[in-house]
Structure prediction request, 239 residues.
Amino acid sequence: MSATAALSVEHVHAGYDRLEVLHDVGLEVGERQIVVLLGANGAGKTTLLRAIAGVIRPRQGTVRLFGQPIHGRPAHEVTRAGVGHVPSGRELFANLSVADNLALGGRVARSERRSPLLEQVLELFPALRLRLRQRAGSLSGGEQQMLAIGRALMTDPRLLLLDEPSTGLAPKVVLVLFDVLRRLQSEGLTILLVEQNARLSLGVADRAYVIDNGRIVLSGTGAELSDDRRVVEAYLGLH
Prediction:
């Protein structure tokens, strides 16, 4: 593991019941980097994020956050250690207000950090400030994604995991979200991003990996993978 790695995944095997999805997976995310994970549906991207976040327990291998092992710890402990997870389904509390969803995320943070974190979220996503009393389930898709990211930011993470944040969103909203990711990176946050929009995500990536059938098959800088014929044919022809 490099001395500057925020996240180090080494020789991880993980899956569900008798199905092994990840086979000897390894990747590294440097501090304050945006790293992108590409792969087809079913390749293991979501499973890897779940294994890092503690949603599922790796069967073998290690996951370290800033050098400290977090594999095998339950999700709430991984969150407290500094991992914010935005799942692909958003998993908001639809019947609770925007404010209550954000407050639930903030329960993990130190009490003196909650007000500054809330102000940061509302500055990043001004639309949420106007809808604090509104039910989360009544928001537009883009607003729900903003809320899901905001709730994760309320946990005061050092590493943010995002699983397909642009799915189903209008192009203008997607651009807003990517602008937010760049801003968060500039403010010191480390980001691991699973994203279907390969062209846009590689454009912001410091480094990228391609996973296929549960194994990492390619890695390089965002620019290197943008120029790789295999990546162009598999992913970039669609966008």
About this structure: Residues 89-157 form one domain. Residues 171-186 form the longest helix (16 residues).
